[in-house]
Amino acid sequence: MAKRIDVSGLNAYYSSFLAIEDISMTVEPRSVTAFIGPSGCGKSTFLRTLNRMHEVTPGGRVEGKVMLDDENLYGAGIDPVAVRREVGMVFQRPNPFPTMSVYDNVAAGLKLNGKFKKSELDDVVEKSLRGANLWNEVKDRLNKPGSGLSGGQQQRLCIARAIAVEPNVLLMDEPCSALDPISTLAIEDLIGELKERFTIVIVTHNMQQAARVSDRTAFFNLAAVGQPGKLIEIDETERIFSNPSVQATEDYISGRFG
Amino acid sequence: MDITTDPQKPAPAPVPHQPPGKDAKRAARGATRPGDRIFLGLSRGSGIFVLVIMAAIAAFLTYRASIAISKNEANFFTTLEWNPTGTPPEFGIAVLAFGTVVSSVIAMAVAVPIAVGIALFITHYAPRKLGGAIGYVIDLLAAVPSIVYGLWGALVLVPHMEGLFGWLDEYLGWTGVFEWNQGAPRSLFTVGILLAIMILPIITNVSREVFRQVPRMHEEAALALGATRWEVIRMSVLPFGRSGVISASMLGLGRALGETMAVAMVLSSSFEINLSLLDTGGGTFAQNIASKFNEATVMGRDALIASGLVLFVITLLVNGAARMIIGRRKEYSGANA
Amino acid sequence: MSHATLTPKSRSSLRGATLPKWFLWAVAAGSIAAGLGISAAAGLNSSIQWALIAAVLFVLGTYAISARVEGGRQAKDRVATSMVWVAFIVAVIPLASLVWATVKRGVKVLDGYFLTHSMGVVADAEVGGGIYHAILGTLEQVGIATLISVPVGVLTAIYLVEYGSGKLSKAVTFFVDVMTGIPSIVAGLFILSTWILMLDMGPSGFAGSLALSILMIPVVVRSTEEMLKLVPNELREASLALGVPKWRTILKVVLPTSVGGITTGVMLAVARITGETAPVLLLVWGTDFINANPFQDPQESLPMYIYLQFANSGGYGAAYDRAWAAALTLIAFIMILNLAARGIARWKAPKTGR
């Protein structure tokens, strides 16, 4: 299931503005990789290049290679729609489909991919909701609108929706930034469980969170506003937080800027 | 924004030299100074004036209509005659109701899907610059007066309808609805098509606004699941925009129901209900008023006013429904913002 | 996983079979050719028909080919795309035709003479004459209607935004909304039943102006309301906190801040009522002669002129030419108003908005 991501020489643009420059890194399968860095350093932009969501923004453009195992996501003849099915995504703010029930939200991705028997769908929905640690809270209200849940529940619903299609990789763009501490804890626990099955990449503003959940951490920075963001270093999380090899990383982590 | 929703009634609180802040606000509200009192009086008076006009419209139309209807010897709703000056006077609105409903239904059936298509084209398919330009042009087209549509309809559209009519007659003539007796194509069907073209810009504009307001994150949620563009539209754009499209359609319907000149110029009217929509004949409320007005006596005018009252009530209901849907939509989207 | 095999595509699941870009153009060209061919073979002569045939063939063709090569989901997506394009083209044709016809036929007799002469001594079938009397009437009727509507509309909006809170303002808001939907012929009938039938006045430009005001007031209220709501509350409070009375705050702070937007709204409202025909037909009647007095006797107006030339043409080309030329003048006037209004809106856009 889980696949390795290998990025080399990646640039991403907004129209003519170069947002991130020359990024190369490897994301290991069945692990959690965290992206940290000051605002505007391009970590979210970079995340969105990993499932070809960046090009959805008007003017968005990407150069370089993103290998998912042995397939270049930006190669000729690659269907971005198929890419997004393989690389799932959870957003900063929970975004369940407001007109759909809890059940339909989870089943939404599956229904796109063809016809399923009701019983099959039921199984997948239950499995995904259990996987997102949400089943016990919503099993009695599967047919209620998903927007009626609390913020933390909505975010776990979005995770359930993403894992229901069994992607190879799960991208999370600051998934806890809109949540209270208790919901955040629930999501963090969940991330620990999910890494058994998926390759997880998480963008976070919160360094404690990166330290808690990730195996490897990548630090992004930008020289100045208006300059492109760059990858400063990527290493084992422990090393990054105890003994980083670049001075800027240490400055950032120790709170000297950012 | 609390100034406008301050629940306190304007109460006389004559305290000179208010300290700034809440008290100043209250004093300003409380119309203590002559200037404030006059200004509040003027603006409130204008608001009341608007209400008075609406009440007067209803009252006067009802009054004149009641004069006509009391003299009417036939049933006002079912009679297929329009002879208010005959002895005895007999007139009814059945023909007009039929024509108005049929032409508006055709207009809606044609215009709504196409308008939704264009709105989607502008917001989700066309390159951004092109979409913006088209939106702008459609905005301007919404301002083209109906008299020009009427002129174009009568002199350009009507000649072009003949081929289509022959075709419909040949393949669908057996239904009876599309039977055509080779008359000039100045029929309710043509009117419906022309009305569709006229209301297209309005429905497109409102739908476009609604589709544009679909939160980006709902669309991205669908995209991230691996949805194609159409699936994104079906999963997040259309459900979000549905009530907006409905109310846009109602606004368009309101315009189609009340359209006068374009119908009067295109339709070859006669006072009969003709189920074959391609043949001439029939009429609509507004068209009937415009065409019969010139030769009408006082009694004739009162009868026309009676039919106008019916039109007034219908458009009130349609527009009221549209507003209610819009109002509900605001609450709904607010809850999810 | 049981459903990990959901993407049974070729070698790689990421690499869907995709049709080349030229494919759509090829199908489009083929459909148009086939549409023309079928129409020619069947002896159909209307452009509507072959275009319809071509459109249907295009949609079906895209679906069939895409479903075979790319699979059902892609095919549906393609059909949706082509339907959206077809909808766009289907709508563009009549609207473009309308503009084209008006411009092409309108320029025929539109010249200085046409703008400065009336129809006084010109019979319907004759060439010549002009729209001077109609322009004069339109300007007067619309001018009076604007003079009535703007104060009432702006004051009502001020009431709703600055003072209103209770039941009265709710009622006013609702009925202003309802009023926007009143058909123009109903507004005409109302003035007919009061001004003409009850007060026993004759037809005049002023009677038309009254009906036009009914149509214009709600538009002015709506747009002014929107603009006043955009004025940030801090401005009001700053002024009130200085001890400036509320009415002066509104006049000196709120209104000047939003004057650009209000002007835009008024101009759009003027553009809307300028094209109204039905109330003029009932209340002003129309005439071939110059009547500069809006308070007495029938007057002409541009839309009314178009209607009369059309209705009384007796099929003569000269009258139709004049109708088109008047239509072009009317559209040009309305478009200039619209463009100017948008220009002002952009120029004067409240900088504090965001």
Give the helices and strands, then pairings.
The complex is a heterotrimer of chains A (258), B (337) and C (354).
Chain A: E1 5-14, E2 17-27, E3 32-36, H1 43-49, E4 60-68, E5 71-72, H2 80-86, E6 87-90, H3 102-112, H4 118-131, H5 135-138, H6 151-164, E7 169-173, H7 181-194, E8 199-203, H8 207-213, E9 216-222, E10 229-236, H9 237-242, H10 247-253
Chain B: H1 22-29, H2 34-71, E1 82-83, E2 90-91, H3 94-125, H4 128-141, H5 146-172, H6 188-212, H7 216-224, H8 229-258, H9 261-266, H10 285-293, H11 298-335
Antiparallel strand pairs in B: 1-2
Helix pairs in contact in B: 2-11, 3-4, 3-6, 3-8, 4-6, 5-6, 6-8, 7-8, 8-11, 10-11
Chain C: H1 22-42, H2 47-70, H3 72-106, H4 112-116, H5 132-163, H6 167-180, H7 184-198, H8 205-230, H9 233-241, H10 246-274, H11 278-283, H12 302-311, H13 317-347
Domain ABC transporter (chain A): 5-247
Keywords (chain A): ATP-binding, Nucleotide-binding, Translocase, Transport
GO molecular function, one term (chain A): ATP hydrolysis activity
Detailed description of the structure:
- The complex is a heterotrimer of chains A (258), B (337) and C (354).
- Chain A is built from ten helices and ten strands.
- Chain A has 258 residues and is of the alpha/beta class.
- In chain A, helix 3 packs parallel to helix 6 (151-164) and helix 4 (118-131) crosses helix 6.
- Chain A has a single domain (5-253), classed as Rossmann fold (3-Layer(aba) Sandwich), CATH 3.40.50.300.
- Chain A is globular, with a radius of gyration of 18 Å.
- Chain A has helices at residues 43-49, 80-86, 102-112, 118-131, 135-138, 151-164, 181-194, 207-213, 237-242, 247-253, and strands spanning 5-14, 17-27, 32-36, 60-68, 71-72, 87-90, 169-173, 199-203, 216-222, 229-236.
- In chain A, strands 6-7-8-3-9-10 form a six-stranded mixed sheet, with helices on both faces. A four-stranded antiparallel sheet of chain A has the order 2-1-4-5, with helices on one face.
- Chain B is built from eleven helices and two strands, in the order H-H-E-E-H-H-H-H-H-H-H-H-H.
- In chain B, strands 1-2 form a two-stranded antiparallel sheet.
- In chain B, a hairpin with a 6-residue loop joins strand 1 and strand 2 (90-91).
- Chain C is mainly α.
- Chain C has two domains: 22-106, no CATH class; 132-347, MetI-like fold, CATH 1.10.3720.
- Chain C has 13 helices and no strands.
- In chain C, helix 2 (47-70) packs antiparallel against helix 3, helix 5 (132-163) packs parallel to helix 8 (205-230) and helix 7 (184-198) packs across helix 8 (205-230).
- The radius of gyration of chain C is 28 Å and the shape is flat.
